Amino acid sequence: MKIGVFDSGFGGLTVLRALLEKAPAADYVYLGDTARLPYGAKSRETVARYAVSSAKFLVEQGAEFLTIACNTASALALDAIRGAVTVPVLGVIETGVGCAAGVSETRDVMVVATSATVESHAYAAACTVHGLRAIEKACPLLVPLVEEGWIEHPVTAEVLRIYLTELKEQARIAGLDPDTLVLGCTHYPLLRKQIEEMVPRTVRVIDSAEATAERVAGTLELEGMTGKGTAQFFATDSVKKFRALGGRFLGREIDGVELVDLEKERTGNRK
Amino acid sequence: MKIGVFDSGFGGLTVLRALLEKAPAADYVYLGDTARLPYGAKSRETVARYAVSSAKFLVEQGAEFLTIACNTASALALDAIRGAVTVPVLGVIETGVGCAAGVSETRDVMVVATSATVESHAYAAACTVHGLRAIEKACPLLVPLVEEGWIEHPVTAEVLRIYLTELKEQARIAGLDPDTLVLGCTHYPLLRKQIEEMVPRTVRVIDSAEATAERVAGTLELEGMTGKGTAQFFATDSVKKFRALGGRFLGREIDGVELVDLEKERTGNRK
Questions:
Q1: Rounded to two decimals, what is the model's pTM?
Q2: Interface-testing mutation among B42, B137, B156, with chain A (most A C-beta atoms within 10 A)
Q3: Cα-only R_g, chain A
Q4: Can you give the pLDDT at residue B267?
Q5: What is the domain partition of chain B in residue ranges?
């Protein structure tokens, strides 16, 4: 079974990392659309165009199941992707919210994500389906802080404090009593420890990456299968940078990254 | 005279703003490649491909002179652009450094810019031509902080303090005595006041946007010409966002932004 994992950049490697732990017997093909990242502040039309070309590429590489590890693409382009390929497609938002629905007792949930994800209200919509009420908050500085490597850094702590205080205030105004916080961006698990230290002990922090890996492994009945699968990596920009920054997200060294030009792919002039 | 102004996004509007003040009689056509921004952390090949398609588009729109208002594109793609179009092309790096060469007495200069600009060492190379020694420092968090609107904000002040302290230490280790600081990214002029308050009074802060506008107006003998020119705006992503965020950089409201798809342009299938 070959599983395609797609993200605009490196964050989706946290999903692949969780998948490699949960289902090490499968084969994986990862694509980071690094030449066009970030998707987080772009329009639905642009994100859908980029995500569809990326999904098609992964299917061309033999993927029989697609994991959209990018929250923004899951929020803005899941239907467009499902309409463009014939293999099953799973997005991080439905799995993250599904996990929240399983643990929340107050049925009130907080979500932190990129601007585009929050503006789409995809998390709120998915929460409604599960009978949850949601408060969403855009945290646009967290991705650049993680990419700067400022994980355990006073500036990041201060930015988190500001965002989480604003989120709490939003919940108070809306009259919600949230007991669950969904990390709605694949960069955020790198700040999980800092975030957990800053929210009350009663608040459960949910990492969509882990939730997605569990769901994929369960759906495909890959749990418990042993064996050593393979992982291929593709990026649309510098493979050198992909190796350097990607390793931080995957938790191990990446080698053998291949460069792909999806703009050429789009018109069929494949290199 | 129709002048094309190109940037990956909104920052170049600070150059257009300065041009509209210095040379209000000219006509302007601005392109923000917002669907593929930011360029600041991407490879030379990718930046050159994007910048060349953008420059060609501006020439198709009638531009007789191109101002590359994007520091990253000026650093990585100026030769590629000059090879691809027949009109004169001016980049912000040569004008910023030219201005520094005119004011620096110690002949030692500091430059703050994006990661890609710093890694290209384009500023250091341009400084060498003018007999200046340069210390360059990547400040990747400043663009997202400006875009978050955190201009007069304690977090931004702390980030600036960290970056400027590291820069000063770099200069000390290199044995330099800089009296000039070049703002090597068109987002940074929005933080000029904060930066000026943080560096010694003896350090002159140079805004490439202003320097470029002066040079363009001088070169084209547009200075002192009166009259009311026109300004057209194109963006490759959401025109709504371009209007909203762009106004902050241009200093006035923007209307009549047109959407353009440069990926289609590239293969000739123009909409």
A1: 0.89
A2: B42
A3: 18
A4: 47
A5: 2-91+212-266, 93-208
